[in-house]
Amino acid sequence: MNVTQWKNKMTDLSRRDFLKLIRNGFLYLSGVLVTGGLLRFLSYESEPKRKTEFDIGSADNYPLGSRTSIPEIPALLIHTESGYTALSLTCTHLGCTLEPNETGFACPCHNSSFDEAGNVIHGPAVKPLQVLRIEITDDGNIKVFTA
Amino acid sequence: MQNKPTTFHFLLLIASGLLLAALSFLWWNDSRQPAPISLTPTLSGETEYCLTCHVDLPEISASHPADTFGCVSCHGGERLALNADLAHSTMRGGANPSDFSVVEASCGGSNCHSGSEADDRHHIQRVMTSVQSTYAGAIASIRYTFGAQTDLNAHFGIQAVIDEQSKTGISSLETFNPVDEAHPSIQKFGEECLSCHLHAEPREGEAYARETGCAACHSTKKHTLTTAIPYTQCNACHNRGNYDLRTMTFVERTDHPTQRIDDYYQPIAQFTQCEYTLDCVDCHTRSEVMGDGDIHNDQASIEYVQCKTCHGTLEELPLTKTLTDPNDIAFTLAFLNPIKDLKLGDTIIVTEKGEPLWNTKVLPDGTYEMIGKATNQYFTFRPVMGTACEQKPDEQESHYCHECHAVEK
């Protein structure tokens, strides 16, 4: 249909057909918007899922003897002769992020202290630091799991 | 067949129009809402949107970082609501979750402030039975004065408290209810004179401004908790004026002191230099101020620090202790108010009950240092022993020391 034909058709459109067109347009638009709204409602996440899996890159980045802080988790990745270990840097008392000190790690909130292996030196924390699960992927990356 | 417009079609058209209008309104309303700012504190692991409106609030203290505690674990509230009324609808204690009506839910828990006595984390139990909370001494004194009881022992508190393991012989207090009292003066006391215990809202006026509950002492400015409590915070209750026992009313101070010595506590009292230069918390210990977990008769039965605690007597040096245990409570207290780098091996003064005055230190020459907890000022002082002081060892109340050492006003 060219422009002239379309113009002729529109000119021939009766008042009734025009109203019908408008009505159907409304109905289609409402249907689309309601469907869109429903999909948005059903897919809405009121709270984001907590990340429990962290890909921290190639194992080559963590040479033998290294102790690397991974603030994103937070954890300390330790590479020794026996392999990789990820030590959680979340205090076992109330969950503050630990800071390294001369003897290991200290909690800046309530002064709990841990040695380099994560054992409690003094409280209020009573549990040692959590050792996190590690996987090395097929492409040589290290994944750390917090749950 | 020709389609005829029907009532059904007309209604359908109206309905779809209304639906479009409703959706447009929702879109418009949604576009006016601020973008949610989420926080998932490590303690709860549950996302909350409080920072959407409160992102500018300062961190309440180094011990309660928002990343760890969030807002809801202390304040309550609807963590996912973006509407202010809904978000605040289930908050504990309004803006003050440490109010004693909700403090157990807000600040309690075995890892927080209602832990075991052995771990020294029974803070809520201590403060709820403290004289600052029960007001037991004042109530007993007034009831005795007006014949409602035959002794000066505490039988009533602002709220009923029980301590079956009390070492003071007082295992419980009943709730003081002034309207049940027969004597009009006791009733008046209830109406006019119960505004300075920790349950009570303060009187109106800037000089009396404080929160209730824990925050009455520990919150010196908005959304802040501290153990570096200046004397001005104590003054909100302890330097406000005097009770007139004839009319049983509180008479507010009318003077406006410009010097610290005049501002400090009762204007008629005498003070040595250290009494008004230091802050109350530099000398008075946690158990004196916050209670020791037992129910006490009155203020006099819980206060015990005297001049000799720091200065000793002619016959004895002050008690001291060398810190050898990293779990010593002195380190915790110094950590919470880091005005000095307290170390293992430091020798500090301790009270006769063994409470550490952790802001002191014995110096190599036998003198002592003290650092002001709220002012960070550095002081040095000497023991009485070996001086020309004529103080008798059994006369240790402050008025004896004032005879020679009070500062003239």
Tell me the structural class of chain B: alpha+beta
CATH topology of the largest domain in chain A: Rieske Iron-sulfur Protein
Uncertain residue segments of chain B: none
What spatial order of strands do you see in the largest sheet of chain B? 1-3-2
Question: Which features would summarize this protein structure in a list?
Answer:
heterodimer, A: 147 residues, alpha+beta, Rieske Iron-sulfur Protein, six-stranded antiparallel sheet, 2 helices, elongated, B: 409 residues, three-stranded mixed sheet, three-stranded antiparallel sheet, 19 helices, 11 strands, 31% helix, globular
How would you describe the overall organization of this protein?
The complex is a heterodimer of chains A (147) and B (409). In chain A, the strands form 2 sheets. Chain A has a 6-stranded antiparallel beta sheet, with no helix packed on it. In chain A, strands 5-6-7-8 form a 4-stranded antiparallel beta sheet, with no helix packed on it. Chain A is 27% helix and 31% strand. In chain A, a hairpin with a 6-residue loop joins strand 6 and strand 7. Chain A is built from 2 helices and 10 strands; from the N terminus they run ααββββββββββ. Chain A has 2 domains: 41 residues; 93 residues, 3-layer Sandwich (Rieske Iron-sulfur Protein). With 147 residues, chain A is of the alpha+beta class. Chain B has 409 residues and is α+β, with helices and mostly antiparallel strands. Chain B is 31% helix and 9% strand. The mean pLDDT of chain B is 89. Classes of the chains: A alpha+beta (147), B alpha+beta (409). Chains A and B meet through helix 2 of A and helix 1, helix 3 and helix 18 of B.
